[in-house]
Amino acid sequence: LAGHREVEVSDEVLSLLMLSKHYHEVTDGLFNIMALPLIKHIAQSENNKEKQSHQTPDEIRSITDIHKMKLDSEKSTAYLEKKGMMIDLGGIGKGIALLNIERILSEKEISNAFISFGESSILAKGRHPYGDCWKIGIRHIKDSSQNVYSLELRDTSLSTSGITSKELREIVNPKTGELPDSIKTTSVVSKSPVDAEVLSTALLVANDKNMDQVINKFSPEMVAEIRYNKNDQPTVKELYNSFGEGREKCSSGQARNN
Amino acid sequence: MEEDKLQSRRDFLKKLSVFAGSGLLMTAAPGISFSETLQDKKESANGRIRLGIIGVGSRGRYHVLVLNKIPNVEITAVCDNYPPHYERAKELTNGKAEAYWDYRELLEKNRPDAVIIATPLHEHAHIAIDALKSGVHVLCEKSMAKTIDDSIEMVKAQKETGKILFVGHQRKFDIKYLKAKQMADKGFFGKITQVRAWWHRNNDWRRPVPENHFPDYPNWELDPQYPTLEHKINHRLYREYSRGLMTELASHQLHVANWFMNKVPISVSGSGSINYWHDGREVFDNVNLVYKYPGGAHVIYDSLTSNKHYSLEEQIMGPKGTFELENGKYFYESPPAAPGILQMINDIEHQIFDNVPLGGKSWVPESAADTSGEFFIDDYPLPNSTQLQNEAFLEAVRKNKVTPGLAEEYLHATIASLMGDQAMMNNEVVYWPEEKLKVLDQYNK
After folding, report:
1. B353 with A114: Cβ contact below 8 A
2. Among A140, B138, B296, B347, which is least packed, fewest CB within 10 Å?
């Protein structure tokens, strides 16, 4: 009903959309749930170089403008002002789901759990049955037998976003339409699974200048970027680490029955 | 053509066109052409093939049904010496085809361009040879003949007459198999080191025998080569007419094994018995064989009629992967690592505290490949392989073009199945009949 009329939405959806708008501001536009038409436009013009997409850059800019999504909390309605506007919650949905799961686990007084959504969004609650945290090894994108980066998580969440091949360009800078410059993945550890997911998505398309700026607006525990060169050699760069040097290492040992 | 025939033709070509561009059909045999088939030529008098069907039992009937979907061919004659099948043949062709009791009469009077032979096995060789020698192209159902000598004679007749001889191993025209063959030739497995094939059924393999009385044909007499009507109806169960599971089922799969390995076996040994169906049959109700191929690869083959749990399959294996051809699936030898969460569960079960490996998968949906295998083709349903085979045959007939090596390929499949029978019957290792085959050398110069 984009461009036609407003639609009634549940409180849950409304707050999700509001939250998405908030994240749009915080990330300085790098996170945008309205970017789908832009992605489609780019995919189309890449696949079909001669036949350019019929939409002009201005039109694209207009239908991906999150400010053209009007939310009314009094009436519980959402309105997409332009025809062709689309909402894609792919960069936030799993985080929201993990947040809800976290709440359910707490209600049920479950203190140790490991929840994985397709390995890209993780909730690590409490500890492993045979160790006092959850240890994570992020695998090489091409060679899954190779461990590239290890992390230890306790009562926190991890989100990883990535571009794994030049062909699979699902993530674009919604502000500029730029594609990330190399194959890379970004992992964010944060107490908030929603923060983790939004930030990992946004940082993938951030440039060196706005990267720190964006990270500082969140309070992640750790941010790491893995870049792959032409020979698929990975380089890990910790962009942020609040754990510091003095952090106690995780040790093995069976949980006591208390 | 009538409208529904045209529509079914369009559907068939549509299905086929998906695969035509990929060179897949070329894989069937270099030299087999589908160019006219694919053009959907309209009916034309001069390109029209006059075809006879000899033997209209269950397989012959199926051929007629398939041919009814193919343009530019007319079934001008049918032949069967059993009243219910004779009657059926006339019905299936709407009385348009001339009906004969004796194939010799069919060849002489109807003078078709080509025939399809779907008689019991022991009748294949002399009918095929007579047809070829009277200038008629032949598509003969598998296996070729009851003996290696007769099978060689068939190929000899093909060579001498220059006519076309196809044998009904329709897997050679099955899109799944063609796709697999293409992958195999590109080295998907590395070297093929073993083929395991089996065909399991759980039934007595009998057909009901009616009373030997056909009121419409009071003068009909059972062919004296059959002591009773039971022998005629259930010819597959008697050694006078058949080699049982080896010629009726195994030859298809041995053909596939030879084809994929581009080799023929050196030798075979094995054991067969009647261990369940003690009903007077003379052929084994279970067969078990090991074929040895050059380079040390083996084909392990068995066929059963007392258990169908594993139905049928040809597994083609090498150091890098496996094909399951009947299933239409392939498997990488080293599949991508299991999802991290599975590894974690496994660790916990073994009381191990280790990394939960994450990454890769969720970002690349196409990469999904697990131990349940991958399909060769995901565009089902596929064109019917028997139809594709028959179209290739008809196109060869139209162009009067013999595909080099094809008759030999069929011969080799029959020889492999007859070698297996001999090994089991005589409890001996049976070797590839090099000497016997030398008689064909003169034609390959």
Report:
1. no
2. B296
pLDDT at B42 over 90: no
pLDDT of A27 higher than 60: yes
* pLDDT value of residue A232: 82
Structural element, H or E, at residue A161: strand A156-163
Model confidence over A248-257: pLDDT tens digits?
677 777 654 4
Q: What is the pLDDT of residue B369?
A: 41
- Lookup: tokens for B212: 């030997």
| Residue A109: φ, ψ to 5° | 55, 40
Joined together, the tokens standing for residue B35 give 């160019």
Chain A residues inside the 8 Å CB shell of B356: 114, 116, 134-137
With a CB cutoff of 8 Å and minimum separation 6, the contacts of B350 are none
**Strand B73-79 relative to strand B98-100, pairing:** parallel
Residue A62: partners with Cβ closer than 8 Å, 6 or more residues away = A68, A82
Chain A residue numbers touching B348 (CB-CB < 8 A):
128-130
Answer for the pair B316, B184: CB distance below 8 angstroms, yes or no: yes
The DSSP-derived string for B306-321 is B--TT-EEEEEEETTE
**pTM: predicted TM-score of the whole model, two decimal places:** 0.66
Rounded to whole angstroms, the Cα distance separating B29 from B251 reads 18
Two tokens, residue B175: 């899109």
Q: E strand or H helix at A58, and its extent?
A: helix A57-63
Cis previous bond, B381, omega within 30: yes
Compute the distance between CA of residue B52 and CA of residue B351 in angstroms, rounded to an integer.
72
Going across the sheet that includes B73-79, the strands are B98-100, B73-79, B49-54, B114-117, B137-140, B165-167
Q: Give the count of alpha carbons within 13 A of B174, CB side only.
A: 16
Tell whether A134 lies on the interface with B, counting CB pairs under 8 A: yes
Q: Which of A96, A115, A133 is nearest to A251 (CA)?
A: A133
Whether B353 and A120 lie within 8 Å, measured CB to CB: no
User: What are the chain B neighbours of A162 within 8 Å (beta carbons)?
Assistant: 363
**Complex prediction ipTM:** 0.74
Tell me the pLDDT tens digit for each residue of A63-90: 888 998 999 988 889 999 988 898 988 8
Output the pLDDT for position A247: 60
> Are A130 and B351 an interchain contact pair (Cβ–Cβ within 8 Å)?
yes
Q: Do B359 and A140 touch (CB under 8 A)?
A: yes
* CB count in 10 Å sphere of residue B276: 14
B60-113: per-residue pLDDT in tens? 999 999 999 888 899 999 999 999 999 999 999 999 999 999 999 999 999 999
**Whether the predicted pLDDT of B404 surpasses 80:** yes
Q: What is the DSSP string of B403-414?
A: PTTHHHHHHHHH
Using CB atoms within 10 Å of the CB of residue B20, give its burial: 0 to 12 exposed, 13 to 18 middle, 19+ buried: middle
Rounded Cα distance between B64 and B51, Å, is 10
